[in-house]
Amino acid sequence: MADFNRTRALFHIPEGVSYLDGNSLGPMPLAAADRAAAVIRDEWGGQLIGGWNSAGWYVQPRRVGDRIARLIGAGPGEVVMGDTLTVKVFQAVSAALKLASARRNVVLSDSGNFPSDLYAVQGLSAMGAELRVVAPEEVEAAIDESIAVLMLTEVDYRTGRRHDMPALTAKAHAAGAIAVWDLAHSAGAVDVDVTSGDADFAVGCSYKYLNGGPGAPAFIWANPRIAAEAQPILQGWMGHDAPFDFVTDYRPAGGIERMRVGTPPVIAMSILDAALDAFDGITMAEIRARSIELSQRFIAGVEAACPGLRLNSPRDPMARGSQVSFCHDEAYAVMQALIARGVVGDYRAPDVLRFGFTPLYLNEGDVDRAVSIISEVLDTGAWDRPEFKQRQAVT
Amino acid sequence: MADFNRTRALFHIPEGVSYLDGNSLGPMPLAAADRAAAVIRDEWGGQLIGGWNSAGWYVQPRRVGDRIARLIGAGPGEVVMGDTLTVKVFQAVSAALKLASARRNVVLSDSGNFPSDLYAVQGLSAMGAELRVVAPEEVEAAIDESIAVLMLTEVDYRTGRRHDMPALTAKAHAAGAIAVWDLAHSAGAVDVDVTSGDADFAVGCSYKYLNGGPGAPAFIWANPRIAAEAQPILQGWMGHDAPFDFVTDYRPAGGIERMRVGTPPVIAMSILDAALDAFDGITMAEIRARSIELSQRFIAGVEAACPGLRLNSPRDPMARGSQVSFCHDEAYAVMQALIARGVVGDYRAPDVLRFGFTPLYLNEGDVDRAVSIISEVLDTGAWDRPEFKQRQAVT
Predict the structure, then answer these.
(1) What's the CATH number of domain B33-279, 1.10.3720.10, 3.40.640.10, 3.40.50.300, 3.20.20.80?
(2) Which residues span the membrane (chains A, B) (predicted)?
């Protein structure tokens, strides 16, 4: 059985903080700095260029990918790390467009998708892509034979609404479309299974629920049934079948490694590797069950204590990821007041208070303390101060 | 005057090693591990998501870019960091294709370019790009009015041959083409000046002569005369004019920041930031002069002591970057034998022994020791052993 007291002890949470923003940036694993220092001193410092072989840097993107594969229902050798999530979205969608019928060019997404995914597709208009955006609840009806690619983020970054991956993917396939899933708010948070869901491509980042640190590398998976045909328009030497032959013509590697582009971020990926130790011996089903317990407790507590807040997430936990959001007209100032009191969630425009539930390091005490402080801030109007209304560069 | 004894003391070079491979991976600055640990513990650990504002993570790609700008002749605010070099090549060439005449689609490059740059353009065939590759010495003659984009790496990764950036750029402009320069083997090594050279785009990596560590982020520069028009097909939220408005439609940021894509690699970039301290108080003209001294000494020494080696680099230092290569039929085994004796250069297929000269941490003693050991390995045939002929994954 999962021991969440053990995992909680693996992370540093500053004194006095209830950290409900691990869905934006996971906290620091206590092992992170030592791991980084070891890689820097022993591998880079001691082995220099030889580290590509002797320290395993070259195979690291696939070795770490295997650790994430287990968390998303993929098999060994099916996931590779690198770049950022938007780059991986760009690769997946461009590869999907090439696999789709040549007579189709529409990429269907929804207005709840993270904007960067939409921007990536807008850029692909140069290869003829046409982005079609509908409301999240209209996606299912909008899947028809005009669609080349269905591109969705499974869990909505604002509301936490969770799409039904198996059902939407099945409908996309029946219509002859390719399904690309962004797991940014899924990986390490919910019991996603790309294999039984029969997705075509899945991508995600590793600095949220996977706790890899600010700007940690992204991952990409392609279904084995198409991995050897998939060809993104963004390609580089590390995805070549024989990178060190230095030949002039690109020839993609056999499987998912073709999605590698340039030199991988060795030190950052080592920190992520250390962070993934927290998942050892725990199943995603256990994490998911615990996440639902904590989220339900939070919703019940807030609704009982804070009549001024309106739930902005699905009430049914099966239709939700691992975050809960509430709306308030002065959400920005309210969140700043909460942060000042050590309850760290975040604000999303225009009126969303967002809270993430991450069983690896949160427990009932955090939830109850957060409820109590939210209630106090709203009851006393403590948010109504100029310093809480002053916008910062990154919000 | 530049004090290269001071800079040498800033790096860790293992005992018994003459490191002539800083053109592949720069060595570890002694400050690297402590800087990484400080960013991990104090910023990520202590400030959590707040680090984007309070620790300056959000502006880091431009702040560090400013430090590199000085080394390549660019102005403040003109360079931004992120991704890997191949991604930046892809962005620059795709943006250049859009700026070029709509009637042109040819990207001209040469067979001495690093293959990943060629692969990036081959991927862009999806937007109509046609790659044309000629021999390095034929580039000038091949620039004509059929060319949309001239894409060259200034310093050849195998031979060290240096293209004449101002002359080739001027010819490209006269023909109505856009010039994209890859500075992978230039930045921090030679006195490149993108401003007086009037390049349109310049890109580079930071793990070679800039010593940022394995997989350190890349940089991109656009000439201010076009930066506000340039639009790569790979675009993401961090390059949006208002990323935190989370709007559905992409609207590029005003200047070079539009080349940002996803969440930047904060920890890796902090290590690079620490590494760049070595360049403080030194001009690229000083580094270049010292590089020529060391390279000339090496060539003279090898040619006097090793009649079996053939110089594979231009003899004129003005036509060369900061590396020197020699050919030998058994180059792979010879290099392994050298590495076993602490002379670390590298091998490039099919027959190249490559040595980089990096004044920040190399001196005459390293050069003379390398010459002596190369001579000994060749004279004694010490390379002719099975263990030196066994190929490794990364060569």
Answers:
(1) 3.40.640.10
(2) none
